[in-house]
Amino acid sequence: MEQTINRILLAGTGSGCGKTTVTCAVLQALTDRGLRVGAFKCGPDYIDPMFHSRVIGARSANLDGFFFSENTMRYLFAKNSADRDVSVAEGVMGYYDGLGLTTTRASSWETARTLDAPAVLVVSAKGAALSVLAVIQGFLSFCDGSRIRGVILNQCTPSTYQALAEAIRERFGGRVAPLGYLPSLPACALESRHLGLVTAQEVTDLRDKLRLLSQQAEQTIHLDGLLELAGSAPPLSYEPVALPRYEEPVRIAVARDRAFCFYYEDSLEALEEMGAELVPFSPLEDTALPEGIDGLCLGGGYPELCAQELAGNNAMCQAVRRALENGLPCIAECGGFMYLTEAVGGYPMVGYLPGACFDNKKLTRFGYVTLRAKGDNLLCRAGEEIRGHEFHHWDADCPGVDFTAQKPGGRSWDCAVATDRLYAGYPHFHFYANPDFAKNFYEACLKERRRHAGNRQAHGD
């Protein structure tokens, strides 16, 4: 299949250059123009897509060269761009930075090539002048076919931009176009914590910050030039990724609040496409699980920051424990896994799994992994694999031993608790990395639904 998609990728020279700020400014400005904008994030990041979603009022999707085949990435990009006037992808780390220190695999550059998308490089001009051109030249020449067609300077003054823009035109002869700048905007700064930016819902004045960014972008970023560049992208070719469709629906409860907010939206939507109804609930505020559910998803997030509140909601802790003891199929990733243990930072949790969680004061088992099952379980058969990601400061006394996690460089460790009704562990994964895992989870929920129906029939209900 082919689909015409106006698209660009906003990349950075490295983490901290301002690409998220620039991306949010561009997204808000284009949205304010009345355009239907698609937003995407390269890599496994959860937090930046939340900011994108707050800007455009719709979800943002992940593009990950480690999780997905090239066709799957193109399919998901096309699927989420189907009704958009323009789609904007934000890069990850530096443009050429991949899953290892010396590889471009799963980099933003690889994503731009896979999507056949023109790239715009965000370069910090703070404390620099002509050296900015040296940086641009290095990125243009580092790999054949850089796909870099434009540059936006961040933390740049008007006079500096005017001079550098002219120098860029003269030096590169049209190979790359200066497409504007953002000045230093202290009022629009986004706070960070140990896993990156704070989540979008925690920024109380986010709407004001986005309004200021949009106004600034209209003044100093060449939005028409970005749209023209996006319109130069050729049609995108892909083959649809088929998921099974079940005539019998299931209801799956999904934890959604300040403590549990890290989800890949395409991954959840895969369950919906199969026939599931996803029912949101809050372990912080609700006192019981939703009625009539056949499965449970406890995503990642920051349970450690809400540990006292979670512990104080003993009714929900007991409800979750009873549900699992009664055999409710459950996926609990990272923060969700922590919630199922005995305690987080000394505060009692659900207590379904042994051991407690503690702050390790540093990133622990960080990065991409391939998960291989040691035995048959809720999601797969022994020996089957799915690609995933770990990113956490907290650790557990008993992190599980039912999967082997192996990094691309070869290091491996045991992880996760996996039974015929449960996956609980620190690694996150995406169902489109192996759709059979979604199929197996759905069918387990379907068995649970039929078991409930059989029980009701036996009791004459």
Present the secondary structure layout.
Layout: E1 2-3, E2 7-12, H1 19-32, E3 37-42, H2 47-56, E4 61-63, H3 70-81, E5 86-90, H4 108-115, E6 119-124, H5 131-142, E7 148-154, H6 158-172, E8 177-182, E9 192-193, E10 196-197, H7 206-220, H8 223-231, E11 236-237, E12 250-255, E13 260-262, H9 265-274, E14 276-281, E15 295-298, E16 300-301, H10 307-312, H11 314-325, E17 330-333, H12 335-340, E18 343-344, E19 347-348, E20 356-373, E21 385-396, E22 403-406, E23 412-415, E24 417-418, E25 422-425, E26 428-429, H13 435-458
Parallel strand pairs: 2-5, 2-6, 3-4, 3-5, 6-7, 7-8, 12-14, 12-15, 15-17, 17-25, 18-20
Antiparallel strand pairs: 1-11, 9-10, 13-16, 18-19, 20-21, 20-22, 21-26, 22-23, 24-25
Helix pairs in contact: 1-2, 1-7, 9-13
Structure report:
Helix content is 33%, strand content 26%. With 461 residues, the protein is an alpha/beta fold. The strands form six sheets. The protein has a seven-stranded parallel beta sheet, with helices on both faces. The longest helix has 24 residues. The protein is elongated. The termini are far apart.
